[in-house]
């Protein structure tokens, strides 16, 4: 009994025919699957693609409804292209928006009065970048360039917005530069004479 207990679970498994720690592994011994669910539809390689058999189309697709006419689609022959726009004899109407062809116009706009082009503040941006505040001066340069680009493509609304931002940044840079300069002068004077 004592020898039997010393053998432990490996010997008991060997008695039942199960491989254990004390028995050498045999060919074919491996993990035992306790429960497995297989799907018969996905076993093996998928079949090669082949189009459906024309004789079985009526099985794959239902027939047309009762009131549906099975006419062949009508294919129209290409005719002459569209005529000129507007047709001859019709005067052209004014467009609802202003067109811009890349050249400044000298005549009045359709609204009757021409707005002045927004200022781009490019020179001022360069000067405050060099002499006052580098960070806000560079951002003002970006908006100045955006103003010029918007004017070039005829987008006056975007040009006005960018011009206002450039103007604000130039003013802020100038005031910040003046404040920093005056503060520095006061600091030096106080440090030297007190």
Features:
flat, disordered N terminus, mainly alpha, 44% helix, 194 residues
Q: What would your notes on this structure say?
A:
The chain is an all-alpha fold and 194 residues long. It is built from 5 helices and no strands. The protein has helices spanning 2-15, 57-60, 122-131, 134-153, 156-193. The radius of gyration is 44 Å and the shape is flat. The termini are far apart. Mean pLDDT is 75; it is low at 1-6.
Question: Brief overview, please?
Answer:
44% of the residues lie in helices and 0% in strands. The protein has five helices and no strands.
Q: What secondary-structure arrangement, pairings included, does this model have?
A:
Elements lengths: L1 H14 L41 H4 L61 H10 L2 H20 L2 H38 L1
Write down the secondary-structure element order: HHHHH
- Helices, by number, come to 5
Outline the low-pLDDT stretches: 1-6
Strand content is under 5%
Query: What's the story with the biggest beta sheet?
Result: none
CA-based gyration radius: 44 Å
> Average pLDDT across residues?
75
The secondary structure category is mainly alpha
